[in-house]
Structures are given as structure tokens and as C-alpha cells.
Design a protein that fits this description.
The chain is mainly α and 135 residues long. It has 6 helices and 2 strands, in the order ααββαααα. The protein has a two-stranded antiparallel ribbon with strand order 1-2. A hairpin with a 6-residue loop joins strand 1 and strand 2.
């Protein structure tokens, strides 16, 4: 409740680190997902990444929900959720906000490249049908 009031009024009634830590622990407990988690770790130096899974619930319902999430990942429907998560992580930190701007620029460039590549054909029709020789 205290964190809710703080968010609404953007104020803090308590400056005690212990109370802030308790609130963070409460939020983590509220957001715990019992069925499992998937995390992505990456290394900027060599571009490698690792996807780790920890699935605790092996029920049919869990498999159904996870397959639905994977489908949305492959279709790009979770992009806004990931972007929002990174925005929340940045908060008001200047360095992190600049980092987020860089991400947005790289994404825009990658989308432009992807759109241009979709319009390119692997082989031109004139190469396949050899229209020049038909004269």
C-alpha cells in the first residue's frame, strides 16, 4: 500500500533503507511466477547469448501457456513488453536512458534493413528464364 501511495503522489514517507528493502521484497513476492521462468543472458563483447529455462509446473496447462508465449515471441508480439521492462529498469537514471535511446536507434535500423531485405529477390526472373536469349 505504501508503494502504491508513493507511486501516485511520487513521494516517500520513509527514508529508512530497511523499509525500502521490505517494500522491494514485497513486490518481488507479489510478482513471483510459480510455473517457471525463462531468462536471456547476453555478452556484448562477442554477441553470444544464452536462453535458460527453469520450468517447475509440468502440467498440460503450463505447456499450453508456455507454447502460447513462445508463439507470441516468434510473431514479435512481446516486443512492447520487453521494451517497457527496459524502460522501467532505466527509471530516471541518465546513463540508462541514453542506453535505451541507443537500443531504439539500433532497432529502427534493424527494422529498416529487414524491410529492405524482404523486397529483394534471391534470383531475378531474367536470370531464370533468360529473356535476352529469346530474341
Amino acid at each position: 500500500m505504501k508503494s502504491f501511495i508513493n507511486k501516485i503522489f511520487n513521494i516517500s514517507f520513509f527514508n529508512n533503507k530497511e523499509i525500502v528493502q521490505e517494500e522491494q521484497e514485497e513486490q518481488e513476492e507479489e510478482c513471483s511466477y510459480e510455473s517457471g521462468q525463462i531468462s536471456i543472458k547476453f555478452d556484448a563483447e562477442d554477441g553470444s547469448f544464452l536462453v535458460e529455462s527453469d520450468i517447475k509446473d509440468l502440467s498440460d496447462k503450463s505447456a499450453e501457456v508456455l507454447s502460447f508465449i513462445i508463439l507470441h515471441i516468434s510473431e514479435g508480439n512481446l516486443n512492447s513488453f520487453i521494451s517497457n521492462s527496459i524502460e522501467e529498469w532505466a527509471s530516471d537514471d541518465e546513463e540508462r536512458l541514453i542506453y535505451n535511446q541507443k537500443i531504439a536507434l539500433y532497432l529502427e535500423n534493424l527494422n529498416d534493413i529487414s524491410k529492405n531485405d524482404k523486397n529483394k529477390v534471391a534470383v531475378n526472373a531474367s536470370m531464370v528464364f533468360n529473356f535476352k536469349d529469346m530474341k
